[in-house]
Amino acid sequence: MLVKDARLEDNPYLLRSRTAVVTGAAGGIGQAVARALLDAGASVASLDRRESVLLAERAVPVVPGARALGVVADVTDVQALHDARDAVHRSLGRVDLVVANAGVMYGGAFERASEEQWASMVDVNIVGSLNTARAFIDDLLETAAEDRPTDLVFVGSVASHLLLPEFSVYSATAAARAHLSRTLRAELSGRGVRVRHVEPGTTLSALGSGIDDATARERLNRMRAVEQPLTPSDVAHSVVFAASLPPNVNVAELVVMPTRQA
């Protein structure tokens, strides 16, 4: 855990008094980010469409005062996100750190790929990111107006700038999320909101577990065969590091790669 063995007052990555929301937090990178933020002292609301996200409330904070909340919400459902925001306000207060992490990945040859899977990737990866940012933007702007640290983080993929056969639509949604981050940074940076895009390289997670195309699955398996790939916790600690920097410093684009991956 991030701060378990350190003297709390000496740890440079503490996020005391911060209140975070993490989407796609029932597993993988999202769950690891939520846990790492909690360990760093933030109060954290974990959001996911899977009911297992409610188990997040069993997490025991390391830093006194930090609290954990689990909320069932689908990022493609605007009303569900608004209801989740209200639940977070009631339990934890105003949000100053949003991690839009929810995402899905499918693959397959373009001429055979499922249009339903295309729609799912567009809905979750792009529209879900928009919905998440919009649901909490007022919180972020209000916090930034008080000259307090404020972060809007999009967790994407290096697929946003790589050429990956069988993953054209997934890569396109990743590129859209990356450019959304850049344009929102141009719009919001002058108002004090740090907008950040985190691009993990090869990471061991369940992302892509629903791929039913044999060729795409084989390509994904080959990509993940890199020596010592990232774990979700590796990515999570990078998110915490960037959020813990002084308010005048923004790691705007953070590419997190396994050391042995080119």
Automatic annotation (TrEMBL):
<feature type="domain" description="Ketoreductase">
    <location>
        <begin position="18"/>
        <end position="214"/>
    </location>
</feature>
<dbReference type="GO" id="GO:0016491">
    <property type="term" value="F:oxidoreductase activity"/>
</dbReference>
<dbReference type="InterPro" id="IPR036291">
    <property type="entry name" value="NAD(P)-bd_dom_sf"/>
</dbReference>
<comment type="similarity">
    <text>Belongs to the short-chain dehydrogenases/reductases (SDR) family.</text>
</comment>
<dbReference type="InterPro" id="IPR057326">
    <property type="entry name" value="KR_dom"/>
</dbReference>
<keyword id="KW-0560">Oxidoreductase</keyword>
<protein>
    <submittedName>
        <fullName>Short-chain dehydrogenase</fullName>
    </submittedName>
</protein>
<dbReference type="InterPro" id="IPR002347">
    <property type="entry name" value="SDR_fam"/>
</dbReference>
<dbReference type="Pfam" id="PF00106">
    <property type="entry name" value="adh_short"/>
</dbReference>
